[in-house]
Amino acid sequence: MLPSRARPLWVILAAVTLTGGVVVVGAGTAAGEHRSAPAGFPARAAEHPVRVEPVAVRLVRAGEVAPEDNPGVLSALARAEREPLAAPEPERSTAGATGTSGRDGDASGADAAPPTDPAAETVEALEQDVRAHAAQVLASLPGAERVEIAWDHPDIGNHLGGVRLDKPTVMMLNSRRFEAEPHRVAATVKHEVGHFYQGAVIAARAEAAGGWWNAYWELDAVLGSAFGSAWMERSADCVALHLGADWTNYTSECSAPGQQAAVEALVGLRFPG
């Protein structure tokens, strides 16, 4: 028989399922109590009893496990102790985030405008350049102070520019075409101002001629004899060359005396002939 301090403890473990929870029975006897082996217990086990410390009994509600009883939680805690989490990045300063720039901040905060597309900025800058160039050229031409530019007017479609003879003070120009062909800006403006001269002299003569159309047909007769049936465009090209254009689309032949006289009259806002 074993000494009293080494007396064995028999432990019976059982699991009992209850409604709403699980009761785990961990120990059937108190520590230090000695019992003989239950009937039917293997003789070898009875000869070599095992001492087991008491196990606490705990009521656990279904679906809830305390952290100290959860192997996953314990494993995570152990890993966290071995591999501390990286320190969080410090918050960025909000100085200068009000949309103003200065020595100690910038305008990159919440109120700053989102980044823009460089290609879009280039197109916008080019469009501003061609418009400014066209306005500068127009302002330098004689009598053109009465003319205003209407950019991308639907009446001109895909043409570089256009002027209606019955509304000659409105010069319609195509910014998209000029962005692709900026070298055409000056020559086009000078050609279109030639149409302004045509419309202006018709309007000035309309009352004396008995109406706008009568004045138109008079101009048709004079310029038709000098430039042919396409007088409207050819005379405008000759006006453009007279004003220093380096490119024309309809003609470059303007050397005949009648042509030169007609061009000088138009530029001077006089009815030719």
Describe this protein's structure.
This protein has a three-stranded antiparallel β-sheet, with no helix packed on it. The chain has helices spanning 43-47, 71-82, 118-139, 175-180, 185-209, 212-227, 231-242, 257-267; strands at residues 14-18, 21-25, 59-61, 148-151, 161-164, 167-173. Helix 3 (118-139) packs across helix 5 (185-209), helix 5 crosses helix 6 and helix 6 crosses helix 7. A hairpin with a 2-residue loop joins strand 1 (14-18) and strand 2 (21-25). 40% of the residues lie in helices and 10% in strands. Residues 1-38 and 93-110 have low confidence and may be disordered. The chain folds into two domains: 7-73, no CATH class; 129-267, no CATH class. The chain contains eight helices and six strands. The protein is globular and about 105 Å long. The chain has 273 residues and is of the alpha+beta class.
CA distance, first residue to last residue: 149 Å
Strand content: 5-15%
Largest sheet: 3 strands, antiparallel
Described by the principal axes of the CA atoms, the overall outline is globular
With helices defined by DSSP (H or I, 4 residues minimum), what is the helix count? 8
Q: Kindly state the percentage of residues in helix.
A: 25-40%
Radius of gyration: 50 Å
- Which structural class best describes the helix and strand composition? alpha+beta
The strand line-up of the biggest sheet is 1-2-3
Order of helices and strands: EEHEHHEEEHHHHH
Mean pLDDT: 74
Q: Compute the number of structural domains.
A: 2
Which runs of at least 5 residues are low in confidence (pLDDT < 50)?
A: 1-38, 93-110
Count the E strands. Answer: 6
